[in-house]
Amino acid sequence: MDDYLTPAELKGRVIEQRAALRRNLVNRLFRLGNGVQAQSQQLLSLISDLSLVHFRILLRLSEAGTQNVQGLSELLGANRSLVSRALPDLREKGLIELVKSETDKRQIFVRLTDAGNAVVEEHRAPIRARDQAMRSAFKPEEYEQLVEYFDRLDAITNVPAAEFFHEPDSSDQGDDT
After folding, report:
1. CA-based radius of gyration for the chain
2. 171 within some domain
3. In total, how many domains does the chain have?
4. Residue 93 burial (CB < 10 Å; 0-12/13-18/19+)?
5. pLDDT (mean) for 84-98
6. Residue 73: band (very low, low, confident or very high) from pLDDT cuts 50, 70, 90
7. Would you tell me how many other CB atoms lie within 10 Å of the CB of residue 1?
8. Please, are residues 67 and 75 in contact by the beta-carbon 8 Å criterion?
9. Which of 6, 113, 129, 133 has the highest count of CB atoms within 10 angstroms of its CB?
10. Distance from C-alpha of 137 to C-alpha of 1, rounded to nearest angstrom
11. Residue 67: beta bridge partners?
12. 96 touches 113 (CB < 8 A)
């Protein structure tokens, strides 16, 4: 009976499942994303108490300049409500300014302050070192190929979910996730 497996049997099942999941792209991408997120938060926590969302907003503003909430959301690959909820805290800390558009008062622009820019610069070296470590795991041509693969996968994530409801045919492969 499955309820009474020995620790060794349980460990064996975990090893079997991990081996099977190794080829499951969705599972691997989730694990990779979670790993990058956890490591990024650890890097940030060594220097400050910023959340990853807050830092990503500051970093994008430092690289792209003043943005409206919609543009910032698109650059982050995040929904507008997540970005909107993070902005008041960043403003209270003096890291950003929120400026109403002179032509459309409904439009709010987000601008990095000098203090916000200083925070980004303080965090830039460890983030850059981690990014370089990831890049150095590949030859330049492999890295470019990886970017192309990510572009393909990214395009699939933009397909409406309803389009995936179909009867599987003989060409379908892989585990469901």
Report:
1. 21
2. no
3. 1
4. middle
5. 97
6. very high
7. 4
8. yes
9. 113
10. 44
11. 110
12. yes
User: 19 pLDDT band (50/70/90 cuts)?
Assistant: confident
- 30 domain-assigned: no
Q: Is residue 163 part of a domain?
A: no
pTM of the predicted protein model: 0.77
Contact (CB, 8 A) for 73 and 79: yes
Instruction: With respect to residue 80, please indicate whether it lies within any of the assigned structural domains.
Output: yes
Residue 119: give its domain's CATH number. Answer: 1.10.10.10
Q: Find the domain containing 126 and state its range.
A: 49-157
Q: Which residue has the higher pLDDT, 109 or 168?
A: 109
pLDDT digits (tens, 9 = 90+) for 110-154: 999 999 999 999 999 999 999 999 999 999 999 999 999 999 999
Residue 106 has pLDDT above 60, yes or no: yes
